[in-house]
């Protein structure tokens, strides 16, 4: 018992501010992500005993697992759904962290570790996607790695290194399997330990406060054991029960065996990359898969290191004004993005209007520059007319990017039919 | 003891030399490790890379003009143009790599993934594909068509020089 207690207290402070325990402050998202990773490791090890990462055996071993092994379907489903939930939970955790301002002094670097973990979770999901070797996984990976070809200079080399050849083959399967079962999980575990330790160093999670209320110098504190521990166990048990029930009800999908000669129609990447594919339908590839994503990643990385006038850590959506800006920006962006997609489908045709310039300018630079001017005028308006602080302005940009990407993902997943034509 | 380590002393030069030496050796080790990693990840050639992947398609007369014949083993289509010339087209869409079927009713290739279309010569007739279908080298010996399926040749548009005549 005392050993367990000691272990817990390595990652949790002995005493912590009582206010941080409220479920609606963190929604237990970080802890949920940790529980999902544990579930994934346990079910993953079980699957490794059965799975054979060789074309001709891979799909067959999954079929055998589902037919012959006791709870085979269930274990695979738990692994499948936990992985998908993990992407959602980690994304929500990132949003919670951002919108409660948990990225100021002493938590700055932990934001970066968190982003690295997010990338690892996506990479883990992506590499796992290929392993069942069915039509869905084969073509989703074909399309996603096809996007790499548009990255100048290193794109083709990187694609071939990842695939272990010019196309998806046995080399690809062994590469993805190795990344999925060793390199990425080890990285995740190491980063997770680092992540938790930084939270403990910062004295637990950020203390919530109302807008205008100053940070409390001596908040009321309670013992981590039992107050925090029991809450975390409760969240973990509810989550595990939820995942188990879900997996019992819905078996992880397994389609026809991969057939390199026949692409399904429509073929889509995994749902978390569908937004990127949607972007590719509207922008020149160099902008869709390189310029815009790189810009967004850099922006995410610098968020905690910008010079803000005031520290709004713990204040939900930074301030009263911040909340208003965020709400308006969210609604406006969702509508505007959907309208732009519709317009691009039926009206806009920059390459025809500007026939004399190369496609990278007419379909890439011109629309990107127009959007940049639009965002810049929004920022100018916020600064001059609304007297917005830098925290509020950056947050508004964050909300715009979030809702634009979410709208693109929703359109790509539910409103793109055969031939990638808009349907509803 | 402390005196001996003062700058300009013989000990200091030896120490700085040694630390530089360690640093150099460490850097070499890092470079070697990276080199090794890159080499491990380098696209693996198929084990029988030396064997020619020459596919014998058949005698010239078997292919009618204006016809498209699929060769799944070589992952290409053998096209005989109206003027009797041969062209071996890759079946891989240049947009994102889906397999493009030939649709005889429409007389063109239509990609099922993002609806790019290509004409019989592999030229893009409908976006979003950015360039014409890759092609393979075709040889005709003793009126037998042979296709070298080992290397797909990239091209932006169709050019007359890509066609092989009997």
Describe this structure in words.
The complex is a heterodimer of chains A (424) and B (166). Chain A is mainly alpha-helical and 424 residues long. Helices cover 68% and strands 1% of the residues of chain A. Chain A has two domains: 249 residues, Cytochrome Bc1 Complex, Chain C (Up-down Bundle); 160 residues, no CATH class. A two-stranded antiparallel ribbon of chain A has the order 1-2. With 166 residues, chain B is an alpha+beta fold. Chain B has two domains: 39 residues; 109 residues, Rieske [2Fe-2S] iron-sulphur domain (Rieske Iron-sulfur Protein), CATH 2.102.10.10. Chain B is built from one helix and ten strands. The model of chain B has no long low-confidence stretch (mean pLDDT 82).
Give the largest interface pair and sizes: A-B, 32 and 26 residues
How large is the radius of gyration of chain B? Answer: 28 Å
For CATH, the homologous superfamily of the largest domain in chain A is named as Cytochrome Bc1 Complex, Chain C
- What can be said about the biggest beta sheet of chain A? 2 strands, antiparallel
- By DSSP (H or I, 4+ residues per run), the number of helices of chain B equals 1
**Percentage of residues in helical conformation of chain B:** 10-25%
- How would you spell out the order of helices and strands of chain B? HEEEEEEEEEE
The percent of residues in helical segments of chain A reads 55-70%
Instruction: Work out the strand percent of chain B.
Output: 25-35%
What topology emerges from the helices and strands here?
The complex is a heterodimer of chains A (424) and B (166).
Chain A: H1 2-11, E1 15-17, H2 23-26, H3 29-50, H4 58-68, H5 72-99, H6 108-130, H7 135-148, H8 155-163, H9 170-201, E2 221-223, H10 224-249, H11 274-282, H12 285-302, H13 320-346, H14 350-353, H15 359-384, H16 390-414
Antiparallel strand pairs in A: 1-2
Helix pairs in contact in A: 3-5, 3-10, 4-5, 5-6, 5-10, 6-9, 11-12, 11-16, 12-15, 13-16
Chain B: H1 10-41, E1 54-59, E2 67-71, E3 76-80, E4 86-90, E5 102-103, E6 108-110, E7 117-118, E8 124-126, E9 135-141, E10 144-153
Antiparallel strand pairs in B: 1-10, 2-3, 3-4, 4-9, 5-6, 6-7, 7-8, 9-10
């Amino acid at each position: 018992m005392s050993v367990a207690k000691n272990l817990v207290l390595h990652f949790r402070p002995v005493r912590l501010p009582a206010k941080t325990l409220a479920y609606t402050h963190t929604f237990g998202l970080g802890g949920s992500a940790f529980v999902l990773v544990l579930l994934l490791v346990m079910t993953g090890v079980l699957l490794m005993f059965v799975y054979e990462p060789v074309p001709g055996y891979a799909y067959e071993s999954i079929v055998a697992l589902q037919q012959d092994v006791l709870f085979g379907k269930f274990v695979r489903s738990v692994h499948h759904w936990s992985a998908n939930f993990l992407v959602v939970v980690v994304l929500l955790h990132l949003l919670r962290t951002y919108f409660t301002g948990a990225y100021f002094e002493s938590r700055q670097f932990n934001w970066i570790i968190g982003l690295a973990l997010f990338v690892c979770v996506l990479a883990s999901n992506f590499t796992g996607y290929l392993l069942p070797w069915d039509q869905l996984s084969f073509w989703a990976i074909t399309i996603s790695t096809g996007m790499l070809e548009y990255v100048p200079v290193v794109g083709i080399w990187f694609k071939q290194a990842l695939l272990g050849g010019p196309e998806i083959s046995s080399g690809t399967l062994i590469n993805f399997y190795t990344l999925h079962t060793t390199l990425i999980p080890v990285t995740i575990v190491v980063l997770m330990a680092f992540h938790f330790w930084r939270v403990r160093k910062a004295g637990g999670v950020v203390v919530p406060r109302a807008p205008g209320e100053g940070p409390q110098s001596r908040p009321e504190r309670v013992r981590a054991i039992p107050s925090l521990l029991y809450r975390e166990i409760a969240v973990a048990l509810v989550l595990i029960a939820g995942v188990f029930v879900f997996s019992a009800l819905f078996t992880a999908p397994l389609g026809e065996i991969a057939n390199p000669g026949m692409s399904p129609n429509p073929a889509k990447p995994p749902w978390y990359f569908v937004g990127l594919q949607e972007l590719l339908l509207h922008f020149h590839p160099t902008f869709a898969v390189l310029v815009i994503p790189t810009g967004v990643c850099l922006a995410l990385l610098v968020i905690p290191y910008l010079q803000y006038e005031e520290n709004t850590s713990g204040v939900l959506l930074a301030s009263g004004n911040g909340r208003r800006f965020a709400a308006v920006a969210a609604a406006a962006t969702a509508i505007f993005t959907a309208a732009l997609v519709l317009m691009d489908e039926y009206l806009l045709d920059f390459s025809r209007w500007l026939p004399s310039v190369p496609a990278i300018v007419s379909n890439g630079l011109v629309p990107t520059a127009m959007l940049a001017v639009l965002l810049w005028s929004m920022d100018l308006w916020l600064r001059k007319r609304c007297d917005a602080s830098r925290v509020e302005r950056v947050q508004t940009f964050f909300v715009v990017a979030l809702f634009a990407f979410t709208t693109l993902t929703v359109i790509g997943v539910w409103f793109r039919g055969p031939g990638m034509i808009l349907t509803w | 003891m402390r005196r001996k380590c003062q700058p300009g002393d013989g000990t200091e030069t030896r120490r700085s030399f040694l630390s530089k030496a360690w640093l150099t050796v460490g850097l070499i080790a890092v470079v070697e490790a990276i080199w090794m990693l890159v080499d491990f990840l380098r696209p693996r050639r198929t084990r029988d890379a030396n064997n020619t992947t020459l596919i014998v398609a058949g005698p010239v007369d078997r292919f009618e003009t204006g016809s498209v014949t699929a060769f799944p083993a070589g992952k290409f289509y053998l096209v005989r143009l109206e003027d009797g010339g041969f062209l071996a087209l890759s079946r891989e869409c240049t947009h994102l790599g889906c397999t493009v079927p030939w649709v005889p009713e429409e007389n063109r290739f239509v990609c099922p993934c993002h609806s790019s279309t290509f004409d019989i010569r592999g030229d893009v007739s409908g976006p979003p594909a950015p360039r014409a279908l890759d092609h393979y080298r075709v040889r005709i010996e003793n009126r037998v068509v042979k296709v070298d399926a080992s290397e797909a040749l990239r091209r932006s548009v169709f050019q007359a020089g890509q066609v092989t005549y009997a």
